[in-house]
Structure formats: structure tokens, C-alpha cells
Amino acid sequence: MRRYSEPVAGKPEDKIPGPSGDLAAVNRSLSEANARLEKANAAMRDFVAVASHDLRSPLTTLYGFSQLLENNWDQLTEDERRSFIAAVNRQAGLMASLVEDLLVTSKIESGTLEPEPEIVDLALLLGDIERANRSEERKLSMSCPIGLQVLADRQHLFRILANLIENAFKYGAPPVSVEAARRDDRVAIRVIDAGNGVEEEFRPRLFERFARADDARRRATGTGLGLSIVRGLALANGGDAFYEPGGEGAVFVVDLPANG
Q1: Are 181 and 188 within 8 A, CB to CB?
Q2: CA 63, chain centre distance (Å)
Q3: 134 exposed, middle or buried (CB, 10 Å; 0-12, 13-18, 19+)?
Q4: For 52-64, how does the pLDDT look when each residue is reduced to its tens digit (9 = 90+)?
Q5: Which residue intervals of the chain bear CATH 1.10.287.130?
Q6: Which pTM does this prediction carry?
Q7: Model confidence at 5, in pLDDT bands (50, 70, 90)?
Q8: How would you class 115 by CB atoms within 10 Å of its CB: exposed for 0-12, middle for 13-18, buried for 19 or more?
Q9: CATH number for region 20-110
Q10: Architecture of 118-257 per CATH?
């Protein structure tokens, strides 16, 4: 029978590390926890900034026009009523878009996004997007081989391309073109505008949440979530999204698995 005072044999890895090893492990754990906490705090600060401005602004407009309609309905002309109601609809649509961006971002960040991949005919999808963007102010062209297919969630892909096209018109310049081509077992979709391109120092932050270059902050409004959503959706569908330097204007590329 073994006495309690006798040492117990064991493997070297079973031995309890000394004080210095314990301290180093604790320090690493604390550093990692602090990094996660800082990331969460930064995300919360960004959300509060968006909520306090980009959500409050349309809410203020909605409240103002609804009050005008309620208090002065009989005094307003038919044209004035229609104009105010149209303004309310625009602001409501903007709010819905902002909330949807935040919800999609939350799903991407939490890993709860669940793509439903299917065979997508790119030429047909790009045709739908072209019709949705057709206007006198927007010069948009599409180039895609007939029969080119990708395996992806169709709604996710539609949103990816819609976000990139909207980004091109907001921060770039027309004409904007979309070009799709197959490379081995992958498909590359390029969205190209004729603007000044992205400043080199800002490129590493392009796909971060809430990221905006200084000139973008001055020129357009929005959550700053568009490109982060593009990459998040692309990654969830087995692909990626990136900026392609070297050409004139800005070139954004979406890489996805080809079908077959």
C-alpha cells in the first residue's frame, strides 16, 4: 500500500508548472481578454455613433413631416401632401436599410449567418441588378458569359453586388461596369468605376466595420457597413472580396466558387 507521503509518478506534462509559468499563462489570458473587451467596446462605440446620428436623423425627419401632415392637413395642397408623404417614405426606407445593415452585421459577427447555396446564373442575376439600377443618372454596364454559374446564396450575392454598385456610384464616378469571368473552379466578379480610386493608406481598412475615408465622410452618408457586409457575405459563401489596385478608378473583386 502506498503511503500518502510518497510521490506519485506521472508524465512530465502532468506536472504543475512553476510560478513563472503560471504568471506567464495568466498574463497571456488577461491580454487576450483585454483585447476582446476593447474590440467589443470599440464595436459598441461605433454602434452608438451610428444610432445617434444615422438613425436619429431620419427619425427626426419622419417626426417633423408627420407632425406637419397631422396638424396642417386641411391647409396643405394636394401636391404638398404628396411631397411630404414621399419624404416620409424615403426616410422610412433609409431607416429600414440601416437597421437591416446592423442586423446582417450582427449575424456575420456572431457566426449565426446561414447561407442557402444554390446554382445562380450570373447573367440572369446581373440583368435583374441592371434593371433595378436603370436610370438616366446612372450609367451601368454588365459583361458576363452566357451560362456562367456560381454556387452561392442568391440573396447574399444580390446584396453583395448591390452594395458594391452603390458604393461605386457614391464614392467613385460613372460609368460603372460589372464584369464576370471564370478562372478554373472560381468565378471573379469585378465592379469598376471611373473615379479616383481608393487612397493607398486607407486600403487596409476598407472592409472594416464603420470604416470611412476622410473624403467619404464629407461626400456621402451611411453606416459605413457596406463593404464589411460584402466581405462577410462573400466569406460565408466560400469566397472572398478584395480591392484590386493598379487600374484607373476603383476595382472591387468578389471571388466565389464556380458551379461545375
Answers
A1: yes
A2: 29
A3: exposed
A4: 666 777 888 888 9
A5: 20-110
A6: 0.73
A7: very low
A8: middle
A9: 1.10.287.130
A10: 2-Layer Sandwich (3.30)
